[in-house]
From TrEMBL:
Organism taxonomic ancestry: Eukaryota, Fungi, Fungi incertae sedis, Mucoromycota, Glomeromycotina
GO molecular function: oxidoreductase activity
GO biological processes: deoxyribonucleotide biosynthetic process
Protein name in the entry: 9993_t:CDS:1
Organism per entry: Ambispora leptoticha
Highest taxon in the source lineage: Eukaryota
Segments traversing the membrane: 103-124
Gene3D superfamilies: Ribonucleotide Reductase, subunit A
C-alpha cells in the first residue's frame, strides 16, 4: 500500500492541491511535502530491495490484493473533485468540495491510513527486529505528522476564511 499511496499523495499535491492554494508560504510547504513524499517512495523501494522482495509483486499489489485496491479506490474517490482539471473554486459549494477532498487526503490518507500501516513495522522495531527499517518508518512517520498538522491548519484556515 505504501509505495502506491506515496505516489497518490505526491500526485495529489502537485497536480491538484497546489493549483488551488494561492498563499506563497503554503505553496512552498506543498512543494517541500511533495519532495518528502518522493523520498518516502525511495525509502520504501530501498526497504523492499533490502529484503529481497520482488518489485513487480510489491508495486502491483494494489491490482492483486483486494483490500489494497479498495483502499486506493477509496482515497481516489475521496479526492476526485480536485483531480478534475475543470474543477475551479468559484462559490461556496466548490469550497465545500475542496475541503471535503482535503479532509480525505490529509486526515484519512496522511493520518489514519499511514499511521495504521506504520504500526506493524514500529512494533517489530520495539521488539528489536528489523531495527533499521523501523527507524526509516519512524523518520517517515515524523514527516507524515508534520504533513497532517499542515493539512489540518490549511483546512481550518480555509474554514475560518469562509465561514459560510
Amino acid at each position: 500500500f505504501f509505495s502506491t499511496a506515496e505516489s497518490l499523495t505526491a500526485n495529489n499535491l502537485v497536480l491538484a492541491v497546489y493549483r488551488h492554494v494561492t498563499n506563497p508560504e503554503c505553496r512552498q510547504y506543498l512543494l517541500r511535502q511533495a519532495f518528502e513524499e518522493a523520498v518516502h517512495t525511495d525509502t520504501f523501494i530501498y526497504c523492499c530491495d533490502s529484503l529481497g522482495l520482488d518489485p513487480d509483486e510489491i508495486y502491483n499489489m494494489y491490482l492483486t490484493i483486494p483490500s489494497i485496491e479498495e483502499k486506493d479506490n477509496f482515497v481516489i474517490e475521496l479526492t476526485k473533485s480536485i483531480f478534475d482539471p475543470k474543477f475551479e473554486i468559484k462559490n461556496d459549494q466548490d469550497i465545500q468540495l475542496f475541503l471535503h477532498d482535503l479532509i480525505g487526503y490529509y486526515v484519512i490518507m496522511e493520518g489514519i491510513f499511514f499511521y495504521a500501516g506504520f504500526a506493524m513495522m514500529l512494533a517489530l522495531k520495539r521488539s528489536n527486529k528489523m531495527v533499521g527499517i523501523g527507524q526509516q518508518f519512524e523518520f517517515i512517520m515524523r514527516d507524515e505528522s508534520l504533513h497532517l498538522g499542515f493539512g489540518c491548519d490549511l483546512i481550518n484556515t480555509i474554514k475560518s476564511e469562509n465561514p459560510q
